From TrEMBL:
It catalyses: 4-amino-5-hydroxymethyl-2-methylpyrimidine + ATP = 4-amino-2-methyl-5-(phosphooxymethyl)pyrimidine + ADP + H(+); 4-amino-2-methyl-5-(phosphooxymethyl)pyrimidine + ATP = 4-amino-2-methyl-5-(diphosphooxymethyl)pyrimidine + ADP. Gene3D superfamilies: 3.40.1190.20. It comes from Anoxybacillus pushchinoensis. Residues 15-259 form the Pyridoxamine kinase/Phosphomethylpyrimidine kinase domain. This is Hydroxymethylpyrimidine/phosphomethylpyrimidine kinase. GO terms for biological process: thiamine biosynthetic process.
């Protein structure tokens, strides 16, 4: 008998350098034996040194890609990444409702590591209004959680308070990543509306962390596509990202990408 084929769709921006965005998502899906599909929202000219240019796609082009995938290939889980403008956010929200997608992982991509904006300032309210209530899982880093909650996050208790606020704004599972906090121990936090859960790891001292957020969220999406629970999905995604950073590829002269095949070498 044939193995079941699980499918995941990523709606995100293209990173020509291959470390983040659509490219990181598809590599991660593939690594977990999940069939990856894409709807590109924007094309970036990007490498390990930074983002040199951003070209959002026409709304019609984004809509057609989503429709083509949805009507024929029925994704088991969906991930969103760089959405760039309020028009794209509104379109993606409308399509999510139209196709009744429920296993949706929303990575609130705002700024690339080098500081380039990947979400317009004017789109933040639309993001909060449309994307948070749709999110089965939301994966903010600490600065993104600060923007979405309008609060400063300094202590671990602040992170918990922010996670609660995001849950109140409609998110089912809040996964607050700890990469931007100080210290040699890294803690990713899950709030499920009742309890907090922590995933701890050693911080690897490296500048090669380009695409960690995309890769981690894509790993969660792949596991949800396979029918895993959120707790199982984060267990696997955390081990995956740790190995991917630990065995980074050391390519390019800036912030290099993680190693998407590290766990299975
Ligand atoms: N130096 C590091 N060593 C190990 N894991 C890391 C490191 N930096 C980030 N991670 C992990 O990568 C994921 C993304 O983290 P974070 O840096 O907070 O988000 P983003 O990449 O979106 O800014 C998290 O699971 C985090 O624990
Ligand atoms: C096209 C595109 N999408 C998302 C990002 C941000 O990715 P992230 O995983 O947060 O990694 P860094 O940019 O922080 O290294 C991106 N750069 N490009």
């Amino acid at each position: 008998m044939r193995d079941m084929v699980y499918k995941a769709l990523t709606i995100a921006g293209s990173d020509s350098g291959g470390g983040a965005g659509i490219q990181a998502d598809l590599k991660t899906f593939h690594q977990f034996r999940v069939f990856g599909m894409s709807a590109i929202t924007a094309v970036t000219a990007q490498n390990t040194l930074g983002v040199q240019a951003v070209y959002p796609l026409p709304l019609e082009a984004i809509e057609k890609q989503i429709d083509s995938v949805a009507v024929d290939l029925s994704p088991d889980a969906v991930k969103t990444g760089m959405l760039f403008s309020h028009e794209i956010i509104e379109l993606v929200a409308q399509k999510t409702a139209q196709y009744r997608w429920t296993r949706i992982v929303v990575d609130p991509v705002m700024v690339a590591k080098g500081g380039a904006p990947l979400l317009k300032q004017e789109a933040i309210e639309a993001f909060k209004r449309h994307m948070l209530p749709l999110a089965y899982v939301l994966t903010p880093n600490i600065p993104e959680a600060e923007v979405l909650t309008n609060m400063r996050i300094e202590t671990f208790e602040d992170r918990k308070e922010a996670a609660k606020k995001l849950h109140h704004l409609g998110v089912r599972y809040v996964v607050m990543k700890g990469g931007h906090a100080e210290g040699s121990e890294l803690v990713d936090l899950l709030y499920d509306g009742e309890r907090f859960y922590e995933w701890k790891s050693e911080r690897i001292e490296t500048k090669h962390t380009h695409g960690t957020g995309c890769t981690f969220a894509a790993a969660i999406t792949a596991q949800l596509a396979k029918g895993k629970t959120i707790y199982e999905a984060i267990d696997i995604a955390k081990r995956f990202i740790q190995a991917a950073v630990e065995q980074a590829l050391h390519i390019g002269s800036g912030h290099g990408p993680t190693n998407h095949w590290a766990l299975y070498e």
